[in-house]
């Protein structure tokens, strides 16, 4: 598969999970400095990884929430909380994942993850 095909495949999945408006704004906002990272993440994260067989999108969302909470990446966590809801996770399931983050990665990481998830829930609720 060519680089262009992988990017297009990734772009499709990225839009389905994160929302077309968000992805279009993200791409339009890329400049000369950030464009390579935006293209690379779309190609490899979304095109090469998220399209692989063997693990469904719901499971990938669970893994991402745990990792992003553990790494304390608030922007990406909020984004992936919204994607997880689209991929079928419930708020209760997300709560359980973030409780596990708190136990295994530390209460401060869990507190921040809960705060960011609540912000994501509120943004989803107000846009509906």
UniProtKB/TrEMBL annotation:
Residues 37-118 form the Carboxymuconolactone decarboxylase-like domain. It holds the Pfam family CMD. InterPro entries: 4CMD/NDH-1_regulator (IPR052512), AhpD-like (IPR029032), CMD-like (IPR003779). It comes from the Bacteria. One of its GO terms (molecular function) is peroxiredoxin activity. This is 4-carboxymuconolactone decarboxylase. It comes from Bradyrhizobium centrolobii.
């Amino acid at each position: 598969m060519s680089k262009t095909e992988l990017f297009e495949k990734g772009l499709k999945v990225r839009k389905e999970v994160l929302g077309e408006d968000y992805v279009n704004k993200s791409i339009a906002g890329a400049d000369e400095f950030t464009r390579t990272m935006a293209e690379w993440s779309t190609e490899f994260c979304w095109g090469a990884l998220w399209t692989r067989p063997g693990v469904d999108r719901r499971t990938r969302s669970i893994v991402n929430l745990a990792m992003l909470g553990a790494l304390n990446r608030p922007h990406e966590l909020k984004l992936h909380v919204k994607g997880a809801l689209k991929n079928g996770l419930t708020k209760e399931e997300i709560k359980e994942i973030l409780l596990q983050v708190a136990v295994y990665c530390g209460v401060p990481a869990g507190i921040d993850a809960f705060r960011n998830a609540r912000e994501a829930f509120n943004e989803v609720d107000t846009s509906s």
